[in-house]
């Protein structure tokens, strides 16, 4: 696997984890956390294998916040257990058929299960394998791993985690990894870990409060798009410029609010032979589509992966040279974790934050980070738009005319997603008060991508957003 030395988190946790002690590890993404919990746990399982009374039980459980991270952990597990015939593993995540999980379990109960919380809870509550309740397969569990625990909780899995813990034996070992330790993570620590547990901190407090909290290998810059004229075409121009200028050695990972840009950017940037096909990973893609896109992006040396926060943490794509963030992030921490997709394994990277002038206030949330204006890209979006408008005109026209019903439907969903996302974040992250600015912002987006009349929104959807009675919407 190419290891010649341990990373800091691996070296500092290995002895305690190998001895079966509970370990709390603080480390950033890309620090080698997966191997930090897999190696010592596998060593313990190999040593104890002959002492277990029931060989048909799962010995290790790994909880992951996203399907993509679960698949990545599974790949590391496969490599580490390649010469361990008695060690098997299985991935259980949403987006795949439950019966497929059960069929695999019936063939062989895996030594290691790597799962997302929702799917695992579903199995614990309802699945039976060869007349044995699924929950009984964990009676002799040795190791519980909670990876990216703060992200698990950020994604709303606290209730599922609390329920899962109740099905597991008390005398298990717990290895918990988290970049931050907020109050809800402390709750999980109290629920799962045995005193005295070992704490290993590879994110030092003096660094956590400074701009060095981001990777020193990654340079940062920002671009401001004129809201009323360049939200759509400026986005395309930025991606095109980076791909064209650095062809063929650049890999981009643009993040956008869920999934607002996805209906347009692949068609707008990926139609010319000089640009690579743009791949997508977000919640509206099936699991098989997400896995295919993920694998393609890993293998290419020149490409663009448009993604939401499912790829923000933990997932490792090699040689990503640029991370582009379009629009505000949920928080300062989310911005930093997205940035962590580049500059990995000691390589250089660049992060570019692209905001509209309405979102400019988000820069105040990033105070202390060195994010100057990107002069070259700013000049491009402030300059003439003739070429890009000519290229984009057929795409936008197909939406406005209704000729491309599929794209028009996706554009409508993107518009509604934008309203829902920015209804929360314009005020909280950008300091923009009142609904007039929200509606004007989202309507400008709709008109720029080709709508001649605003997309209709169901009355109940408007009610759920708290926008009932607001002028400027097509209800």
TrEMBL record:
Pfam family, one: DEAD
Domain of life according to the entry: Eukaryota
Enzyme Commission code: 3.6.4.13
Cited Gene3D superfamilies: P-loop containing nucleotide triphosphate hydrolases
InterPro entries documented for this protein: DEAD/DEAH_box_helicase_dom, DEAD/DEAH_RhlB, Helicase_ATP-bd, Helicase_C-like, P-loop_NTPase
Record keyword RNA-binding present: yes
SUPFAM superfamilies with a match to the protein in the record: P-loop containing nucleoside triphosphate hydrolases (SSF52540)
Top-level EC class: hydrolase
Helicase ATP-binding domain segment(s): 14-199
Keyword line: ATP-binding, Helicase, Hydrolase, Nucleotide-binding, RNA-binding
Residues of the Helicase C-terminal domain: 234-393
Catalytic reaction(s) noted: ATP + H2O = ADP + phosphate + H(+)
Single GO term (MF): RNA helicase activity
The keyword Ubl conjugation appears for this protein: no
Family (UniProt): Belongs to the DEAD box helicase family.
Domain characteristics, as noted in the entry: The Q motif is unique to and characteristic of the DEAD box family of RNA helicases and controls ATP binding and hydrolysis.
Protein purpose: RNA helicase.
Name of the protein in its database record: ATP-dependent RNA helicase
Source organism: Phaeodactylum tricornutum
């Amino acid at each position: 696997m190419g290891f010649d030395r341990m990373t800091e988190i691996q070296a500092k946790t290995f002895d305690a984890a190998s001895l079966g002690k509970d370990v709390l590890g603080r480390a950033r993404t890309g620090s080698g956390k997966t191997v930090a919990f897999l190696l010592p746990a596998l060593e313990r399982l190999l040593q104890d294998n002959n002492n277990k009374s029931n060989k048909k039980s799962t010995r290790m459980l790994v909880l992951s916040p996203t399907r993509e991270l679960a698949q990545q952990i599974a790949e590391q597990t496969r490599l580490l257990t390649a010469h361990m015939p008695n060690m098997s593993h299985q991935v259980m995540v949403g987006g795949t058929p439950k019966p497929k999980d059960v069929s695999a379990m019936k063939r062989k109960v895996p030594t290691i299960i790597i799962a997302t919380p929702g799917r695992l809870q579903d199995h614990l509550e309802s699945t039976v394998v060869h007349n044995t309740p699924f929950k009984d397969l964990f009676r002799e569990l040795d190791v519980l791993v909670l990876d990216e625990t703060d992200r698990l909780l950020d994604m709303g899995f606290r209730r599922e985690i609390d329920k899962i813990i109740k099905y597991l034996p008390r005398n298990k070992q717990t290895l918990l990894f988290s970049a931050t330790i907020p109050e809800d993570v402390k709750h999980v620590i109290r629920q799962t870990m045995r005193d005295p547990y070992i704490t290993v901190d590879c994110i030092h407090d003096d660094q956590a409060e400074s701009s060095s909290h981001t990777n020193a290998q990654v340079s940062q810059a920002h671009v401001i798009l004129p809201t009323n004229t360049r939200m759509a075409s400026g986005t395309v121009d930025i991606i095109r410029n980076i791909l064209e200028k650095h062809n063929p050695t650049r890999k981009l990972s643009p993040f956008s609010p869920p999934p607002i840009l996805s209906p347009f950017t692949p068609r707008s940037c990926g139609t010319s032979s000089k640009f690579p096909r743009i791949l997508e990973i977000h919640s509206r893609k099936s699991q098989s589509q997400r896995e295919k896109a993920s694998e393609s992006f890993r293998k290419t040396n020149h490409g663009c992966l448009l993604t939401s926060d499912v790829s923000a943490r933990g997932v490792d794509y090699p040689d990503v040279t640029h991370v582009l963030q379009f629009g505000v992030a949920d928080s300062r921490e989310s911005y930093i974790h997205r940035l962590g997709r580049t500059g990995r394994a000691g390589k250089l990277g660049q992060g570019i934050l692209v905001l509209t002038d309405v979102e400019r206030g988000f820069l105040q949330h990033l105070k202390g980070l060195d994010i100057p204006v990107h002069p070259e890209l700013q000049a491009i979006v402030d300059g003439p738009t003739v070429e890009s408008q000519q290229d984009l005109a057929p795409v936008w026209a197909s939406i406005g005319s209704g000729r491309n019903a599929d794209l028009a439907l996706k554009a409508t969903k993107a518009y509604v997603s934008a309203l829902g996302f920015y209804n929360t974040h314009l005020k909280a992250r950008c300091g923009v008060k009142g609904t007039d600015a929200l509606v004007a912002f989202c309507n400008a987006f709709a008109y720029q991508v080709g709508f001649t009349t605003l997309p209709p929104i169901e009355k109940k959807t408007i009610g759920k957003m708290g926008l009932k009675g607001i002028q400027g919407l097509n209800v």
